[in-house]
Specification:
With about 750 residues, the chain is mainly alpha-helical. It is about 75% helix and about 5% strand. Helix 14 (about 415-445) packs parallel to helix 21 (about 675-705).
């Protein structure tokens, strides 16, 4: 909701504009590229920050054994970072679509500023207190042990009370949304619509001089000093203990613990400095008086955007640093992920080992299965015997794998939890980019009929194919990670994934092959190519989809499905070829893959070479010399653009489908060793080829626009019409109106 004094602001702007005719029109200090770039960065950080901070909160909440004074502060810090991640889309809107006109309710503007500064103050005070506690625990261990969990919780509540009272409330009052006068010499002429209300500017400046040093810069300096003091104290304590301690083991253990404490603090302080030093620099720079020129407007815009990137980046690093600095936190996080997303075997082992633990951990008993099935370490609190209930649980858990059973246990998975999350983030980014870019290209072609020609219809159909492939990509990730051993989703999803995946692969190959043939016909036989109509092209595209569905989707829907492991399929995920159709699939692969993948690939390469050769020959022929300079230049330019677009599409196709074809043939070869090394090689080969495939499908819409000036023009126009409506509204409000001379 725009501020209520919008009419008066407009009147003031307009009256000034009537009095002069020399003011240059207002132009936003950013373009569409900045909108998309900032969206990709901020929303990526939103997803990563939200997941990692929420994961840390859940781990601390679930496992009481991980909690201590420091972990309570980490828990509260994660809540602060989680809030900051949730409100980050408001910052993106404020700096892009809502830069000139804040079209959503004004409450969101006030809430964003208030919540943002409250979390900043809370983070700074949390880390300062965290550092002091670390120092007390090393310098004055007796005093430190008198601090209880209740004292820590009271301290955390006090920090949040101060942050809300001295941060949230003042900023909720100071800031608001209104149209800014872009032609004035006021400081807010270069700021977004959602910023300081100028009637509170003097109070805000005074507040900034008092509150920022007290709640941001003071804690920042204290954190650095405390870190240095802790480092010196650890060094001095280590030297003293080494000289006095008779128990070398205890001395080494204490030394290791102190170093871990210092390491964790240094990581947290490093993350804090990465985020809040740029923030501090920009806050002081932005309230200084600067000339109202485009240079300073652009500089102010990108400084404000960049410092926020640093803050969001540091808040994504925090949960990672919490785990890097604490082995106990890492173990609990790993346990939580395995219990939540692990397979049945992992949960069974955890159910045996988890109940047997204690704080003292004096002795350990290792029970090895007499049949070499598994080895389980049980840590006990003393020399007592293992309880009968645990023995019963162990017997019942292992009774299903005795030698007289015919079932065999599946080998260890060829990947770990870091692989699950790293591949998840990578495929999530490609999933979002692929959907956005392909859907954008489809909408542009649908809206602008002037853009359509024979080749654009094929590009439209290719985008539909790539969009389908992007939509089903989460099923691939699940198949290769959480569903690797046991496919817990309905069988239909496994079959549908394989059917759709091979359909889009065949479709893409045939589309690009015919695209290349048409390019060659148009360049080699320009007069005969005029007989081709859009109706004929639509029929060809319909036939392509009918062929690939019939020869791709239907067979793969039959051949593939979720299954149990045996020796033949031990290296593959649970969702793969079924036993009864394996021989038929091998026969099918020998005929269908060369016909629908390898042959189109060969034709594409040949057509590209023929087209390039023809263009070079034509440029030196007598026909080209007989043409007028203008006609020759125009035709040469069109042919070069056509060749360039085809080369880009072929390049993208080769990036994606050469690894795909190589893996498909390699994976079904006989004679592969059944070793852990080979299982890992097969797993990462399959993951890599799919990553190349998804990357190529994200590149396709970009290459369509790079290779066609007309496509770029209409894509820019469409983005401007959809996302630039606010820009046009602000320009219509702010451009000076010249009064006619009488």
């Amino acid at each position: 909701m725009v501020s209520g004094d919008f009419p008066s602001t407009l009147a003031n702007v307009t009256s000034r504009n009537f009095s002069t005719s020399t003011i240059e029109p207002y132009e936003r200090p950013f373009g569409d590229f900045a909108i998309w770039l900032s969206a990709c960065i901020i929303f990526t950080f939103l997803i990563i920050g939200f997941i990692l901070n929420l994961l840390t909160i859940l781990v601390i909440y679930k496992y009481p054994k991980v909690r201590n004074l420091f972990v309570y502060f980490i828990f509260s810090l994660c809540i602060s970072d989680l809030i900051s991640a949730v409100i980050s889309p408001l910052f993106w809107y404020r700096r892009t679509l809502g830069f000139d006109v804040w079209a959503i309710p004004g409450f969101f503007c006030k809430f964003f500023w208030a919540a943002d500064i409250a979390t900043s103050f809370a983070t700074a005070m949390h880390i300062m207190t965290f550092g002091f506690l670390r120092y007390f625990s090393i310098k004055f261990p007796i005093l430190y042990y008198r601090i209880t969990d209740r004292n820590a919780i009271i301290g955390i509540i006090a920090i949040w009370f101060i942050s809300i009272s001295c941060g949230f409330i003042p900023f909720f009052i100071f800031f608001g949304a209104r149209v800014r006068d872009r032609y004035s010499d006021s400081e807010d002429a270069r700021w977004p619509a959602c910023t300081i209300n100028m009637e509170w500017y003097e109070q805000y400046t005074l507040f900034q001089k008092i509150a920022y040093p007290l709640f941001l810069y003071g804690p920042l300096v204290m954190v650095v000093l405390v870190s240095v003091m802790i480092s010196f104290q650890v060094y001095a304590t280590t030297q003293t203990r080494a000289a006095k301690s008779a128990n070398e083991t205890a001395s080494v253990k204490r030394k290791k613990k102190d170093k871990q404490a210092v390491g964790q603090l240094i990581l947290i302080v490093l993350s804090f400095l990465i985020g809040y030093i740029p923030f501090t620099v920009y806050e002081f720079w932005s309230v200084q008086s600067h000339p109202n020129t485009r240079y300073y407007k652009v500089l102010d815009y990108w400084m404000g955007l960049s410092e926020y990137f640093f803050i969001r980046f540091s808040e994504c690093l925090n949960p990672i640093f919490y785990n890097l600095g604490s082995s106990k936190m890492r173990n609990c996080t790993k346990t939580y992920l395995e219990e939540t997303f692990g397979n049945t075997e992992i949960r069974r082992r955890r159910s045996i080992t988890a109940p047997i633990s204690s704080r003292s951990r004096n002795n350990s008993v290792t029970i090895v299965s007499m049949f070499e099935l598994t080895s389980i370490e049980i840590v006990t609190s003393g020399p007592e015997n293992i309880s009968s209930s645990i023995g019963t649980e162990f017997i019942s858990a292992t009774s299903n794998v005795l030698p007289n059973e015919t079932s065999t246990s599946r080998p260890n998975r060829p990947f770990g939890n870091p692989s699950i999350w790293s591949t998840g983030v990578a495929f999530l980014l490609l999933f979002i980019i692929g959907i956005v870019l392909n859907l954008l290209t489809i909408l542009v072609i649908c809206k602008y009929s002037k853009l359509r020609n024979l080749f654009v219809y094929f590009i439209f159909s290719l985008c539909v194919s790539d969009l389908i492939s992007a939509i089903i990509s989460p099923l691939f990730w699940y198949r290769r990670t959480l569903g690797f051993d046991v496919w817990k989703l309905p069988e239909f999803f496994c079959k549908f994934y394989w059917g759709s995946e091979i359909t889009t692969s065949f479709s893409t190959a045939i589309h690009i092959m015919i695209f290349g043939l048409l390019r060659y016909i148009v360049i080699k036989f320009p007069f005969n190519s005029q007989k081709l109509t859009t109706k004929m092209v639509k029929i060809i595209i319909g036939v392509i989809w009918f062929v690939v569905i019939t020869c791709g989707f239907v067979p793969f829907y039959i051949f593939f499905g979720p299954r149990q492991s045996d020796d033949r399929f031990s290296i593959w995920p649970a969702c793969t070829i079924t036993d009864e159709w394996y021989d038929q699939y091998i026969l099918y692969q020998k005929f269908a893959y060369p016909l629908f993948l390898c042959a189109p690939l060969l034709v594409i390469v040949v057509m590209t070479i023929l087209i390039s050769t023809h263009v070079c020959i034509f440029s030196k022929s007598d026909v080209s010399r007989a043409m007028s300079v203008r006609s020759y230049t125009k035709r040469q330019k069109n042919e070069r653009n056509a060749v360039f677009q085809l080369l880009l599409i072929v390049l993208s196709f080769l990036i994606g489908y050469i690894p795909f074809i190589a893996y498909e043939f390699w994976s079904v070869e006989d004679g592969h060793p059944k070793s852990e090394e080979h299982r890992a090689k097969d797993y990462w080969f399959g993951m890599s080829e799919y990553f190349c495939l998804r990357l190529s499908e994200c590149l396709n819409p970009i290459f369509y626009n790079i290779g066609s000036k007309k496509m770029r023009k209409y894509t820019r126009r469409y983005i401007t019409e959809i996302l630039g409506s606010v820009k046009h509204r602000s320009i219509s409000i702010s451009i000076p109106t010249r009064r006619s001379k009488v």
